[in-house]
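pasting for ref
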Amino acid sequence: MPSLAAESLAVSDNRDFKGRSVAEVIDEFRDDGVPFAYSTNLVTADLVVQSEPSQGSALEIVSQILRPHGLMIRTDSGVHLVVRDTSSDPRAQDTTEAHSNKTAPTSPVENVIVSASRYAISRDIAASKFSIDQRTIQNLPDLGEDPIRVTQRLPGAAASGASALAHFRGGEMGEIGIMLNGQWLFDPFHIRDFQNIFSAIDARAVEGVEVYTGGFPVRYGDRMSGLVLMDSVETERASHNEIGISVFNTSLLTAGASGNKSWLLSGRRGNLDLVIDPKFGQPSYFDVFGEFAIDITPRTRLSFNTLYAEDSIEIVLETEPAERDQLSSSTRNAQVWVRLDSHWSDTLSSTTVLSSTNYSNRRNGYANDMEKMVAGVQDDRDVTQFGIQQDWLWTPSESHWTQWGITAKAGKADYRYDGRAEYFGLQAMYEGQVPDITRSVVANPEGGSYAFYVSDRWRLSDKAIIEWGLRWDDQTYTDLNSDSQLSPRLSYLHRVGEKTELRISVGRYFQSQPIQSLQVEDGVSNFWPAQRADHVILGVQHLFANDLSMRAELFYKDIGRVRPRFENLFDPLGLMPELQPDRVRLEPSSARARGVELSFDRTSERFGWWASYTWSNATDEIDATTVLRSWDQRHSLQAGIEWKKDQWDMSAATSVHTGWPTTDLFMTDDGTVVPGPRNALRHGTYASVDVRVSRRFDVKRGSLLAFVEISNLFNRRNECCLDWDIEEGPDGEDALERGKDYWMPMLPAIGILWEF
């Protein structure tokens, strides 16, 4: 690590900077021992120092010469990273550089390649990590500028476009953990009973997202497939305010700092109820996020956080009285947590989080179609949870660190479920189908979950870092004996040449069934043992001479102790899916996901592009037969471009992938309908092109940002579901008629944001 003298070096040796290459100046300071790091995607060869900086330290000098190019310094664990300055545009011209210990994402969908003389021990060496900054989230053409939905653009993600959630590398949607300011978020979604269409997190309130699609370190546990990590925006301005309105929501954000205090408050109200025909329902929802932080001492920071989301939604699929199909849902989700960051010495620090969650959901639905199904459901769920998490970091030398931590949560859940259904016509003709069902479940699980981890990282040489870790988890609310989990993990990073790095990650990952996820809707009142996934990941990253970044990864995931799950064979979009006659219970003995990901990106001052291709395969082993998972997509392509000039910003992105598997249906001679081999068919290829154009206008106070965005620009009909019915054949006999339903149609949106 550099000496204190190098950190605070005053430049007084009459060096001339104006007209020199920015990269050359930074490299010169690095040679003096100041730990600067940058990607040549950002600090390109054509960037020159535009004016002579004022005298000061090396850090102050570099900050001055970066500012005209829209760049700034973020200090992360002792390393000064060059990143995009999202405050350098007209919305916040008077924002000064905030030297935060939060990690600052840089490249739109890629990790920064650090051009340092030696690898800092603080570098995250795990494979399969991506960073997406706030500016990229805003400019990508995705519904509602959603920081969770944007992860669907990453290689290895499988998504329908309807839900904000995605499948990472063959895993289920529920295998992804979401963290904000050090707190694991509890079901942070709107319209949760119909595809989780939006997250409850305002993209304007967070710095960006860091995403692991696998291979994450032992600090993060109880998830098998991936993580989405976020930190709230920090500002050093006395006041910064935003008011926005779009098709999707009306928003208000205010933030500021004064002395040793800072604050942020964000509130959003959904606007879908104002644009959707009332006969199709009223999706009304809002969310509020707030943070107040105070530096108690120069080494101690205390922050208070709250996230509150509320939905009151009615959704109608069939509007005719004779075929009425509707669902109403109300959800209240209140999460409060306090975080204490303590730097006990130059080598020892800790983070402590105390949290409380109070959650309730009410779901009522009915269907009244005498030709198909008459059904009703009443589903009430309440969850309370309290937790403490503490993480410690000890860095005794520049080549070694040790991290450890504990987590303890106590929770209680109350379930009250009643469902009934009577079947007619085709719905009553399924093989083995009973004419009606009545289901009633009451459950009140209560107990705790506990975890402890330790990891050790060593820099073996200037080119190699290794980290091992071990994690222990246990749950008491499941009433299962001997179900504690032990997870060993190992990661290795090696620098091959100046611009190539190799990563290897292997490890075991467990995921318990959360206390709020009892499958009462399908008549299950017991918890299952924790699932297990073993990851093996090999990755290589290279920066070419023309600033083109390439990344390739091979992954293999072996999944054991697979929890039984329930799926609908033909229609995953039903309002009461658990009562549909195509509902099946799957009990895989194991599962497997494997694939290859190849991605490229190149970013210049005005133009950038990125592209990725993934080949993958996700299967279950059911009754000694290998069956495709319902979200398997053999081939997937993601690509996008962005062009910036003056006040204009234009972007386009496309997603293309193999259609997801589905199942056929047959009618026997005796009039019974029987499903064919599971997932032996595929829907047609999924393809969508999305575009966004925005322009910023300077006004007397602040600036206005206006945008137009179109999802599924060409209104492509991407198949999602099969719709079966009975028709009379040529011979007068009943026959099956197969129809199709589709994912999202073309969705145009406009909006405006005033920042002052």
